[in-house]
Amino acid sequence: MSGERVVVIGAGVGGLVSAALLAARGCDVTLIEAAAGPGGKLRSILVDGDAIDGGPTVFTMRDVFADIFAACGADLDDHLQMRSATILARHAWGQDRLDLFADPAASEAAIGDFAGASAAHGYRAFRAEAARIFNALDRPFLRRTNTDPITLGWRMGLRGFADYCTLRPYTSLWRALGGYFPDPRLQQLFGRYATYCGSSPFDCPATLMLIAHVEASGVWLIEGGMHRLAIALEDLGRSLGVTFRYGAAVREVLVERGRTSGVVLQNGERIGATSVICNADPAAIGAGRFGSAVQRATSRIPQRRRSLGAMVWTGRAKTTGFPLQRHNVFFSQDYAAEFTALAKGRLADSPSVYLCAQDRDAAHQAAGQPDSERVQIIVNAPPIGDGRGFTSAEIETCTRQMLDRVSQAGLLLDLAPSTVLTTPAGFESLCPSTGGALYGPASHGWAASFRRQGSRTRIPGLYCAGGSTHPGAGVPMAALSGRLAADCLLQDRASMSRSRPVAMPGGTSTRPATPKDQMAASTG
Questions:
Q1: Which residues contact 340 (CB under 8 A, 6 or more apart)?
Q2: Angle 62-71/475-499 helices, nearest 10 degrees?
Q3: Region for residue 82 given its phi and psi (left: phi exceeds 0; alpha: psi -120 to 50; beta: otherwise)
Q4: Which letter does DSSP use for residue 371 in this model?
Q5: Nearest-angstrom CA–CA distance, 204 and 195
Q6: N- to C-terminal Cα distance for the chain?
Q7: Residues 186, 306: Cα–Cα separation, whole Å
Q8: How much is the average pLDDT of 150-174?
Q9: What does 413-462 look like in DSSP terms, one character per residue?
Q10: Given its phi and psi angles, is residue 93 left (phi above 0), alpha (psi -120 to 50 degrees) or beta?
Q11: Which long-range contacts (CB under 8 A, 24 or more apart) does 367-372 make?
Q12: How confident is the model at residue 398 (pLDDT cuts 50, 70, 90)?
């Protein structure tokens, strides 16, 4: 779109995607990022010279990214090397273990061996239900904006009416899982998918079982780590003419005549724009982080509505005793107590632990274990990074409890002294006005998904993208949000162009009407 000048604030996945897509449509795009490089939460942390994923670790919905690269005239496979994971994740409850596989038949057999034939039958029914819900919502909800219950029903149409009536928004995920899995360990396993959007399985709707279908449809391992995806998106944008400004923070979004007109950087530099896409958390806009002129564009998120935060250890470790896969989960004995503590703003006394062994895959396992390997370890935490935070004693206790949890499964974990720990306070610094909540608002209650900030804001010309906006949290959802923001911007500008009065070629010129002319016309 010739003449369209767009500023994108933030080089997270949503910002990188929207920048590339708009540049591919002919827009003059400048992306401004306070950090030194791209990625946002999809970051890598340099520890003793090793780049280790410090953000999302699971890559799903490959088709979303393939479509984005294709829309930009490129091929995803030319930018990233990846391979499909055979084992999706390894799960442990003390000495008990269960793997889920890319092959659903293998997962069903493993569940049958683990918990009996009835559990295998329950998994088959659960998998079908999760697929049905995902397929019902994919096009009309996940890939569309301006969604509310009535609009969603209209989009699904008569053929989708039966699905619309059985999306299970009023049943909690935990309760629904009890109908498929009498074994509480399997309820924990599939309830954990609620934490993919920073929510509690006891409070989020059963609709979120669709996340299980997304992961079961394929997990890919990116050569070089997940941060390579951010680099690939940056490279795509550069090839299309996007200007990247790193180490530059936006102080203010400008508004003139009721719509955005550009931004002002912290150093006072002003950059004009016809539209602005903000890839920061929308809560930062509502909190006034980008100036009073746009503060009303979004709403502030109260602390009670925030999603989970996390304690994240990133570094190298010596690991013995437990056969790690790329993705590993060590479950607590009392899941309800864990989420009760988090809801009260406390770290759980006995937390579940996720461990990503970045160097592991089936081929690596066969080759033997190295002396040490790159790991990222996550324990859920309350989003209080802009409040009291955690004391050094609380952090030390959490670290010890994390090590105790994995040791109960037989894993001896010796973390290097240089390991980096990021707390909710650290994530608050990375994503201001969130308290360290990693997924925007929590998906609690039937209406939560409809209350998420959409692409458009209350200020014309200002759009939102990122994992805190519609359609939700996670890397593929953030990418879809970037695409939706770009689409909305282009649609709105096209609508403005059509509504502007234009000169009639070949017509006659007439003088402006005078008050005398107007009076004559009114009495004629």
A1: none
A2: 40
A3: beta
A4: S
A5: 10
A6: 46
A7: 27
A8: 64
A9: EEE-TT-EEE-HHHHHHHSTTSTT-SSSB---STTHHHHSB-SB-SSTTE
A10: beta
A11: 369/319, 369/320, 371/318, 372/316, 372/317, 372/318, 372/319, 372/416
A12: very high
Mind spelling out the 3-state secondary structure of 136-177? Answer: HHHHHHHCCCCCCHHHHHHHHCCCCHHHHCCCCCCCEHHHHH
- Return d(Cα 426, Cα 310) in angstroms, integer: 10
pLDDT, tens only, 476-490:
999 999 999 999 999
Sign, Cα dihedral of 311, 316, 322, 323 = positive
Q: What does the radius of gyration of the chain's CA atoms come to, in whole angstroms?
A: 25
In the chain, what are the domain boundaries? 5-43+55-82+224-303+446-498, 107-217, 305-430
416 C-beta neighbours (distance < 10 Å), count: 14
pLDDT of 24-80, one tens digit each?
A: 999 999 999 999 999 999 999 999 988 999 999 999 999 999 999 999 999 999 999
Confidence of residue 458 (pLDDT cuts 50, 70, 90): very high
- Describe the strand order of the beta sheet including 275-278 as a list of residue ranges: 243-246, 28-33, 5-9, 275-278, 462-464
From residue 54, alpha-carbon distances to 110, 156, 315, 355, 496 in Å are 31, 38, 9, 12, 42
Cis peptide preceding 471, ω within 30 of 0 = yes
Which residue has tokens 């709105």? 492
Adjacent-strand bridge partners of 33: 246
Does residue 329 contact residue 192 with C-beta atoms inside 8 Å? yes
Q: H-helix or E-strand containing 83? A: strand 82-84
How far is residue 175's CA from residue 441's CA, in Å, rounded to a whole number?
22
Identify the helix (H) or strand (E) that includes residue 3.
none
Of 57, 34, 26, the C-alpha closest to 377 is 57
Q: Which helix or strand (DSSP H or E) is residue 214 part of?
A: helix 210-216
| Element (DSSP H or E) covering residue 309 | strand 309-320
- 305: pLDDT strictly greater than 60: yes
> 369 versus 286: which is more confidently predicted?
286
CATH topology of domain 5-43+55-82+224-303+446-498: FAD/NAD(P)-binding domain (3.50.50)
